[in-house]
Amino acid sequence: MPETIVITRPRVQAEPLAARLAASGRAAVVFPLLEIAPLADDAALRAALAQLDSFALAAFVSPNAIDAAFAHVKSWPARLPIAVLGEGSRAALARHGVACTVYSPPDPEHSDSEGLLSVLDLASLRGKRVLLVRGESGRELLADVLRAAGAEVVAVPAYRRSVP
């Protein structure tokens, strides 16, 4: 009897994975434990994106953050580097046609804030503005370390998480 794989990612991410597993002959059940939804008010996000020229770095915590932000961005300034946590975010940037420097953790086994912080030149961000695009809630480590390094962090929510 084949093993059944339960996919707990949000439905939008889980369904394509379930289809790939089914195509390879594996049984998959989509059982989202998290729902991603648009914000009721995205004014803060739009205001921050209107000031992209004032930032030295933009960091996105997930593909969801990228997709929500790029719904409001016609073209990304090539001079503004982006920091992301993993390959899913790199793929989201590629879907949006982004052509700039992209920083991400070098080890796919450590696609998290700690991995990203290991590749950023924190000293170069002292006294500069960093845009952090994220969900309404989440870990504060990335923002806290950037602030401790002397960066001015502008953290804006791009989506909300909830229990389905």
Describe this structure in words.
With 164 residues, the chain is an alpha/beta fold. Helices cover 30% and strands 23% of the residues. The protein has 6 helices and 8 strands, in the order βαββαβαβαβαβαβ. It has helices spanning 11-23, 43-49, 63-70, 87-95, 113-117, 141-148, and strands spanning 4-7, 27-30, 35-37, 57-60, 82-84, 102-103, 129-135, 152-162. The strands form 2 sheets. Strands 3-8-7-4-5-6 form a 6-stranded mixed beta sheet. Strands 1-2 form a two-stranded parallel sheet. Helix 3 (63-70) runs parallel beside helix 4. It is globular. The protein starts with a strand and ends with a strand. The model has no long low-confidence stretch (mean pLDDT 93).
Question: Key features?
Answer:
164 residues; alpha/beta; two-stranded parallel ribbon; 8 strands
